[in-house]
């Protein structure tokens, strides 16, 4: 699965604004941010980056299988696509990616208070 340069560009442009709008409403925000860091990591193998970029671009698309504005179920398709991608590439997502995700969410005030 190859990704096009415009997919990575769209992800870089649209990921953070969408995440900031919805982070408190989706239980998979930390996974999404960790996936973003893994996808942008030049040390991550190309096929892993392509899988994650595809899943994250699906997350940022304004129109998808289940519209995001629907309460409760709006992000189920996004969560399922991301979960499938993460299950496929889980060995490549490092503690460094997950720690960067936790730190970013906390710094942006988007972390779920424990």
TrEMBL record:
Location of this chain's protein in the cell: Endomembrane system
Domain DUF1232: 49-83
Membrane topology reported for the UniProt record: Multi-pass membrane protein
Top-level taxon of the source organism: Bacteria
UniProt keyword list: Membrane, Transmembrane, Transmembrane helix
Subcellular location, principal: membrane
The protein, known as: YkvA family protein
Organism whose genome encodes this protein: Methylopila henanensis
Lineage: Bacteria, Pseudomonadati, Pseudomonadota, Alphaproteobacteria, Hyphomicrobiales
């Amino acid at each position: 699965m190859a990704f096009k340069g415009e997919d990575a560009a769209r992800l870089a442009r649209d990921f953070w604004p969408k995440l900031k709008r919805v982070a408190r409403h989706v239980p998979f925000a930390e996974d999404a941010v960790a996936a973003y860091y893994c996808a942008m990591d030049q040390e991550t193998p190309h096929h892993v980056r392509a899988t994650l970029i595809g899943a994250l671009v699906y997350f940022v698309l304004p129109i998808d299988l289940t519209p995001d504005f629907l309460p409760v179920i709006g992000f189920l398709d996004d969560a399922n696509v991301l979960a499938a991608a993460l299950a496929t590439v889980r060995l490549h997502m490092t503690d460094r990616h997950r720690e960067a995700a936790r730190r970013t969410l906390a710094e942006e005030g988007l972390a779920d208070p424990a």
